[in-house]
């Protein structure tokens, strides 16, 4: 950059400032901007749409006039799924950009050190779309998150409980569990085994499936020896397909319970409908609110495709709730004040607002009068518990010839009731 | 201003910890010629060892011995030493690329054991429940981070002084002799196998110390911290800084970590919004280009090894560094 460039820029800025001073004060108010930080794995293929969705929310809010009459600027940093890099990026956002709210990260192994060494010491609110580890709940129970931690990813507890319910409803007595060998899979595998046993169903085996193995024959064979009536699969489509093929070729049962990660066309086509007639899937979300379908439509209009990647609806809600809480907390609020305003955004007794710019405008009016709203998001009526976790409605689904058919819908209250019954 | 200072302290702490690990690798590769492709394993052994020995009890896995911090850190280094000794006994007969492949395999195995052995390491969700020493009294703000930086910086200085002395001692000469020509060293009555093992274990203990300090700083470690990318990062730092030169190793760590973080920061600041999404990938390209450029135009690194002539021999003086 040359000196003339700088000179030109200074001149332009001064001109702008003069122009701004000469027009009404309301226009000057729009000059301000507020920053939110985002640390997401944008260098990974599935991480990019999550970041795009967050940016899309910011654009919508800016369309509605921004937060507290200021345009929102999202400063996005890549984590490279490397804890060192993610923590450094978060620290830079907090210290150098002074963001009061941090969105992210995706992997629990990145979110956790950010939470313990960056956001909690600095009093910044952290809202993750996708971190699923139960370690966060434990940390919050110990009182070490200072109420600054939230996540819109329904804890794996819901899915595990509904999976166990399917086994009970079908009258299966012995179930073998296959789980993906990462933090999500290990958690859900353990939870579903505990839930099944709470219902008096025997768990014959819990088998870890590592990614990208050429064959899962040994794993399938080891589960077969317990002669289960059914299998539970908490796997992703690639490994899920490979495992099911081995399982069926060894003569295993075709009674299956599938976690939402297998709710994909790819899995159905690669395994084949012939073998999936007795496969029951579970999923959180897909709530009965119009807002959820509205999200799908709006997403399709914006990105020319359905929101089929992991964590997109969660990313949308995380960003929108964070921005709504900033609006509710008022101008120049600290991270702790914004975190304290989150219940005003997700109040079950509040005014319902939709997840778009019109909803944001409506919420702003309600907040201005000191009221609270019930945010109807892409994952439904989100409600956080004391640990920053969300529960969610659940569905049971099956693969059909045309696509994915819903079998049963459990509302948030049904889910909560069933889960508290399991605890006894 | 406080924000900038706070960030710089944070950055310097991580860079200092990485510099210690690079010094460990420099002893192995720069001075002894051992191609350690499993840096992450020894770093991780120190990290896990420290947290398991020094953490509070956690449900479901080993640990929570709540040892005083210095003992926990020494324990972590001891775990790294034990791992290095075992690995060294098995693999140090291998040369160059074979040793690299074997140690790389050890690192992958280490990461997988930590991911799967939930009773030992907490599995994929990582190991937490560690209370940072003295945090009760000082709090977790800038003052604590500054104090911790002083602590790791003094350890870096100690490590540097130790290695400088070691390298200029007769033992250091022996290391270089083995690196250059093992047969010749053997003909002089030296035992290369033993010396190589000593250097390998010493370097790994230094890496283990870096790992312990790293885990202390975050009060958390998970298998994601010990992926092969860590080995790559440490190697890149050593190559850029200059293998065989301790000052180069430290400079390389600061420069590479600075480039790694500053490029991300600069892209988030100056790239247009539409390109933001791709900033992560652009960053990879930039970092890769720096390393390739270094290898092409300055393969000896920023600070090349200084050749020490032990006895002036007139005409037999060795040729200067290539």
UniProtKB/TrEMBL annotation, chain A:
Transmembrane segments: none
Keyword Transport in record: yes
Pfam families assigned to the protein according to its UniProt record, in alphabetical order: Peripla_BP_6
Protein name: Branched-chain amino acid transport system substrate-binding protein
Record keywords, A-Z: Amino-acid transport, Signal, Transport
Family membership noted in the UniProt record: Belongs to the leucine-binding protein family.
Signal peptide: 1-29
InterPro entries named in the record: BCAA_transport (IPR051010), Leu-bd (IPR028081), Peripla_BP_I (IPR028082)
Annotated organism of origin: Roseivivax lentus
Domain called Leucine-binding protein: residue spans: 35-346
Classification lineage: Bacteria, Pseudomonadati, Pseudomonadota, Alphaproteobacteria, Rhodobacterales
Domain of life: Bacteria
GO BP annotations, alphabetical order: amino acid transport
From TrEMBL, chain B:
Family matches, as Pfam families: BPD_transp_2
Cellular location(s): Cell membrane
Membrane topology: Multi-pass membrane protein
Main localization, broad class: membrane
GO CC annotation terms, alphabetical: plasma membrane
Transmembrane feature ranges: 6-27, 34-54, 66-86, 142-163, 197-220, 277-297
Origin superkingdom: Bacteria
GO molecular function: branched-chain amino acid transmembrane transporter activity
Coiled coil: none
CDD domains: TM_PBP1_LivM_like
Annotated keywords: Cell membrane, Membrane, Transmembrane, Transmembrane helix
This protein's name: Amino acid/amide ABC transporter membrane protein 2, HAAT family
């Amino acid at each position: 950059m040359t000196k003339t460039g700088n000179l030109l820029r200074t001149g332009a800025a001064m001109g702008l400032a003069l122009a701004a001073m000469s027009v009404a004060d309301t226009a000057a108010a729009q000059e301000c901007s507020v920053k939110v930080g985002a640390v997401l794995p944008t260098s990974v293929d599935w991480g990019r749409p999550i970041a795009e969705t967050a940016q899309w929310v910011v654009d919508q809010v800016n369309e509605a006039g921004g937060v507290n009459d200021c345009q929102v600027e999202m400063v996005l940093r890549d984590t490279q799924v490397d804890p060192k890099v993610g923590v450094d990026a978060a620290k830079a956002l907090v210290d150098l950009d002074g963001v009061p709210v941090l969105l992210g990260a995706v992997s629990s192994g990145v979110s956790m050190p950010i939470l313990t060494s960056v956001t909690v010491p600095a009093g910044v609110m952290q809202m993750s779309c996708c971190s699923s580890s139960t370690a966060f709940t434990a940390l919050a129970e110990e009182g070490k998150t200072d109420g600054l931690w939230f996540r819109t990813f329904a804890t794996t507890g819901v899915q595990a409980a509904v999976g166990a319910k399917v086994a009970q409803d079908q009258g299966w007595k012995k179930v073998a569990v296959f789980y993906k060998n990462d933090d999500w899979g290990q958690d859900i595998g353990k939870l579903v085994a505990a839930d099944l046993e709470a219902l008096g169903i025997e768990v014959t085996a819990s088998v870890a499936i590592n990614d990208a193995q050429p064959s899962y024959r040994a794993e399938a064979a080891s589960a077969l020896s317990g002669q289960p009536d059914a299998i539970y699969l908490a796997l992703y489509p690639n490994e899920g397909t490979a495992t099911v093929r081995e399982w069926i070729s060894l003569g295993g049962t075709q009674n299956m319970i599938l976690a939402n990660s297998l709710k994909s066309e790819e899995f159905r086509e690669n395994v084949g409908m012939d073998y999936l007639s007795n496969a029951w899937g579970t999923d959180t979300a897909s709530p009965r609110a119009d807002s959820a379908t509205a999200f799908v439509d709006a997403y399709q209009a914006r990105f020319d495709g359905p929101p089929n990647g992991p964590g997109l609806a969660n990313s949308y809600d995380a960003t929108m709730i964070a921005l709504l809480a900033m609006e509710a907390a008022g101008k120049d609020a600290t991270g702790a004040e914004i975190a304290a305003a989150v219940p005003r955004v997700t109040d079950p007794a509040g005014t319902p607002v939709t997840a778009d710019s019109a909803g944001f405008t409506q919420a702003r009016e309600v907040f201005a009068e000191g009221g609270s709203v019930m945010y109807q998001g892409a994952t439904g009526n989100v409600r956080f518990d004391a640990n920053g976790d969300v529960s969610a409605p659940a569905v049971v689904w099956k693969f059909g010839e045309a696509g994915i058919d819903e079998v049963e819908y459990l509302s948030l209250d049904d889910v909560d009731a069933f889960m508290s019954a399991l605890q006894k | 201003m406080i924000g900038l200072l706070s960030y710089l302290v944070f950055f310097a702490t991580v860079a200092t910890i990485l510099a210690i690990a690079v010094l460990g690798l420099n002893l192995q590769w720069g001075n002894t010629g051992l191609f350690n492709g499993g840096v992450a394993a020894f770093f991780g052994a120190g990290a896990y060892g420290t947290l398991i020995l020094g953490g509070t009890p956690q449900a479901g896995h080993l640990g929570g011995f709540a040892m005083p911090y210095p003992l926990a850190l020494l324990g972590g280094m001891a775990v790294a030493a034990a791992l290095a000794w075992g690995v060294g006994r098995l693999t140090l007969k291998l040369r160059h690329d074979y040793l690299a492949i074997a140690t790389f395999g050890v690192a992958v195995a280490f990461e997988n054991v930590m991911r799967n052995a939930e009773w030992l390491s907490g599995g994929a969700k990582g190991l937490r429940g560690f209370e940072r020493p003295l945090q009760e009294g000082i709090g977790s703000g800038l003052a604590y981070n500054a104090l911790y930086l002083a602590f790791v910086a003094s350890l870096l200085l100690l490590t540097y002084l130790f290695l400088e002395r070691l390298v200029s001692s007769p033992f250091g000469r022996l290391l270089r002799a083995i690196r250059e020509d093992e047969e010749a060293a053997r003909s002089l009555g030296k035992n290369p196998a033993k010396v190589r093992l000593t250097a390998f274990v010493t370097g790994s203990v230094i890496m283990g110390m870096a790992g312990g300090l790293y885990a202390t700083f975050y009060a958390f470690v998970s298998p994601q911290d010990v992926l092969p990318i860590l080995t790559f990062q440490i190697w890149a730092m050593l190559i850029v800084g200059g293998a065989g030169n301790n000052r180069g190793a430290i400079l390389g760590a600061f420069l590479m970590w600075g480039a790694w973080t500053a490029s991300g920061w600069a892209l988030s600041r100056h790239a247009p919004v539409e390109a933001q999404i791709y900033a992560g990938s652009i960053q990879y390209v930039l970092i890769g280009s720096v390393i390739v450029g270094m290898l092409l135009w300055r393969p000896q690194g920023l600070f090349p090894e200084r050749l020490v002539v032990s006895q002036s021999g007139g005409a037999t003086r060795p040729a200067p560094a290539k």
